[in-house]
User: What shape does this take?
Amino acid sequence: MKIGIMSFAHLHAEAYIQNLRAIPDVELLGIADDDAARGEHFAQAFNARYFDSYAALLSAKPDAVLVCCENSKHRALVEMAADARVNVLCEKPLATTLTDARAIIEACERARVKLMTAFPMRFSTPLVEVKARLDANEFGRVYAFNATNQGEAPLQQRAWFVNKDLAGGGAVMDHTVHLADVLRWYLQSEVVEVYAQTNRILYAKEIQDTRVETGGLLMLTFANGVFATIDCSWSKPPYYPTWGGLTFEMIGERGVVLVDAFKQNLTLYRHDLKRAAWNSWASDANQAMVEDFVAAIRDDRPPRVTGYDGLRALEITLAAYESAERGEPVRL
Amino acid sequence: MRVGIVGAGSMGVVHAASWQQTPATLAGFFAESSHDATRLAEKYNARVYKNYAALLNDVDVVDICAPTHLHHDFVLQAAAARKHIICEKPLARTMAQGRAMLDACRNANVKLLVAHVVRFFPQYALAKQNVANGSIGTPAVVRLARESARPKRPPNNWFFDFEKSGGMLLDLMIHDFDYARWLAGEVETVFAQSIATENPDAPLDFGLAILKHKNGALSHITGAWAFPPPNFRTAIEIAGDAGLIEWKSADTAPLEFFLHERAGDFPDVGLPSSPLREDPYTTQLQEFYDALLNDTPTRVTAEDGLAALQIALAAIESARLGKPISLAEARA
Assistant: This one.
């Protein structure tokens, strides 16, 4: 199976290219990028073929592409790929507007190609174990979640993350979708109400785009009555032992379950770093996600996370912006 | 200085032990249960008063460790008798009671000191000091958690009578409402959700609150009577624009005990502890003692107690109505 990568705007592309190469029978066709310097840089860094346009990559007949461009450009690239009858794994968030997200889903349905939203937490082994125990009803009725998906501000990695036109927002757009999706997956219930408060105190000077929030707290209410908070803030400093993390506390009839998805680390102290660093030995969730995408194409079945899941998570995220703007809960 | 304690429940016991560490004289006890009062009086070689008037006649300072709904009447009588007052948190059950208590003490020219003991826990005091001296810049997102088992349930336990205690949101979460306000200033709006189950096999209370402070900072407050005893977990996270403070009781315990449990061998109300030369309750009562003797300032005032009460009641109201509550409107 031949797979290409469309754009290295998103830093996850650097992980995915290695995930693809680790899968037998997958051939990394090459990469294209509308930023030629960036594309050539990563093509060289990863010893991959560089295509000087997306059209050139698509005309080389890949079976699938990974779309890793800036959030607001997802639609254009997914539509190109779908028109060429190429399966798509699209980076999260699926899009920055509901119109774009729906267009992405429709384009892939029309072309009868697979569409997967990149929600790797569905493949995180600690989260998968909790899901299995939840489905086995080990915790009794579940009442509430207290969740965090905090990180360092990505302005060091890629400047577009802090540009609203390209990213669709700040910390809320960057981090909400992961937990929104995990909670939908766990509860098999949809969010009916979103309340959010945001601010931009962290990095107020460093981030030029004043429309970009850096702190955010959300409260979600599900149709089944479960309530959950999500802290999506860019509140980890750049010298934190790791990039950030995803945690939640699940309150059920039998008690409390604490989940820290990225806790499987060594603490590493190195003379050259002059700070503690967390060195992960966890199972690679990205690897499992990319493998599921490949298997979905091979076996002609839906991927474990779909475009629809991406749409619902985006809906929750956009409702959070509306709530923060209006200062009251928003019904979905 | 002669101190009389009203109430011989868990806080009466703790305060009695702490008064012993100060130069004050523990004169005696008045409590609903003469059995409990007698036991304490014998331990500290102090008196048991037949009624509250007898206590007021014999002391300079009243320390009210009675159930929340009784604070108002005990304080008003003490003020009328021109006695200084130390009052357990929450200051009162309602804002009207709280305001009347402040007025009565102001008019009688007696001090009213509210025992928000969390401000005296050294890790909380140190985190506050770091924020005050600017070491992490302006606070942007504050996370505070306080999680334990439900207090034991003897017949007629007032904790479980919402009219008397206000439930977990008032009794437990008020600690962190007060602390959040101490750190990040006045609170503008509160949004909260909570659950209180009546399932006899799974008794639990859980609440989550999002506070928006006047200066734009956000606070996330978690309160739980949901863990199996004897757990008591607390946590602080303060993200500022120039740094981050993290503290978790579970990760910083200098002692860990893994002892085979004897049946029913846990206290009525779990209290957090860490070995210290002076326990925080003593630090608090010593500061109050100094204030009463020398008119020195205290780190917590009656106005702070009233403000914390207002936030807690707003959280209860928010959870009941499913709407954010504006404190400015509530004040008007």
Remarks:
- The radius of gyration of chain B is 19 Å.
